[in-house]
Every structure is written in structure tokens, then in C-alpha cells.
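Changelog note: in this version the structure field was regenerated for every chain. One regenerated record is shown below for reference.
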Amino acid sequence: MMMNGTHRSSKRDATLVLVLGLLFAGEVAAQTAQTAAIPAKVAKPATTARKSAAPQYKLVLEPKAMDLLKATSARLAAAKSMSFTAAVGYEFPSKLGPPIAYTMRYDVTMQRPDKLKILMPGDGPASEFYYDGKMMMAYAPAENLVAVADAPPTIDAALMKAYNTAATFFPFTDLLVTDPYVAMTDGAILAFYIGPSGMVGGVKTDMVAWANKDVFLQIWIGVDDKLPRRVRAIYAADPLQLRNDLELSNWQVDSMIAPDAFTSQKALAAPRIAFASPSVAPPGAKPIVKMSPAKAAPAKPQAKTP
């Protein structure tokens, strides 16, 4: 499912613990509510404390939950073009203890099979991504720099190349691929229907919980249009269990899109840099902020030339 491309982990048992913990919490809440509803005259005083056995749960893929995932996947796969706004909220650990929340906004426009534009304002430097079936560009307006690379002829392949080449990944990637259902249900070990909701953008939705070995998701799917409206993710590999939220709005499906929407003249005219992962520093690169002498790392002795 979406938001899991950069969070694969070998610690697969951790998600199972997370899923069971969440299910157990729900069961405890339900049992507490039921106990509170029993009249006082019916309740019997406990004579001896008994150690209750831990509840046993069977992880299942409920047909209703899977049908809802299949319906939203079919809706997305059938779209020849679509645009939407994705507001992503994610937590980042702080030295004080409680996490700090950041927000990114993505304005997405795509046209199958080979057109994609993603504009990214948010908490941090703005950036833009363009793909026209032959070339992809990642543009930084503030710096007026652009990374350009040749691209494969499909959105799926272009997104894969962007990730493999430059670690470029979007949390809604699974919504854009040719077969969203395969991407959404890969390795599923649990899926169940939670219930209805009308609290996401005023749209009536059905809530579904889904999990594989790596991530636990809660998904809100539009009752009438079957479009995904919100996704909440917690990753097994994250020891802090920080929350990641994706809210989707302003959906336009199969609307007319201008032919020049998937390129930028400013980006084409900007100075070019390598389309590469930002984690790899280019040769000769120096840190922007100089370290104080007290914190600077000691210089390594250089070997003398004989």
C-alpha cells in the first residue's frame, strides 16, 4: 500500500506485534463499554481475582474490506487522467520527547500512460517534478536549479527510475501506477472493515484497516465515488511508532488537461545538476554551516609522499 516504498524492513515480526496490540486495544475498549452498560444489580462482587487468559486473534482478510480496496483501485486504474491535492502530515522526533509535526502539500496532475506533474509547496523548500514520457525534471524554484534525466515511456517505470536513481518517492505513488490493487494489497496479512465516517472533508467514507509485515494502514474510501480520501500509516520498523497521515482532496477524474501542463519553461531554462540521490555529496562539496573548533572532527594525518 501507499507510503511504504522507503520503509521495507527485515524486522517483520514487529508489525504482527503492532497489529495484535491495536486489535487488543480495541477489544479492551469494547469490553469496557459492555461492562459499563450492565446494571449495578446484575453485577456480582468478585470473590477472588482471576488471571484472564490473553485473547487469541486470527488474522484474516475480510471480504468486505478487500472488496472496498478493489473498488477504489479499479476507480483509479480506469482513470485516463486525474488531479488531486495530497496533504501529508508526518511526525519527526524531537529532543524534548514529543514529536514535532510537519506538513507537505502535493498538487498532482497525471495523464496515462506517460504524463505526470507534481508541485510541492510545504514546510520547507518548494520543488516541482515533471514527466512528459521522454524526460523527467526535478526543479527547485528558490535555487533555480533543475535535475534532468531521460525517462522510460510509462509512469510506473519513470517513478521506479526516479526512486532508484535519486531516492525520489511520493507517498501516494501506489495511486498512480497501472494496477493500484496489486500495490495496495502486496503481502497483506490483515484487512477488516471498521465502519462509516463523514469526518474527512465532509465526504461520506468507509473505513478499512489493512496491514502487511511492514506497515499498518487505516484507509478512508468515498462511499459514492470510491476515491481514497485519507490514509494513516504506522511502520513496523519505526521504534517510536510515529504517525504518517495522507489526506486527499480536490479530486478531478478524466478532466481535460492542457498539453503543456507537464513541462516548465523556467525549469528547462535553469542551470542543470545531476539527477542523483541527495544523500550522496558531489565531489568537492563543503558543508554550508561551519563547525566550531570545539566540535570539529580532528584532521586525519596524511601519508607523506616518499
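Spot check on this record: Confidence is low (pLDDT under 50) at residues 2-45, 285-306. The chain has one domain: 13-31+56-273.
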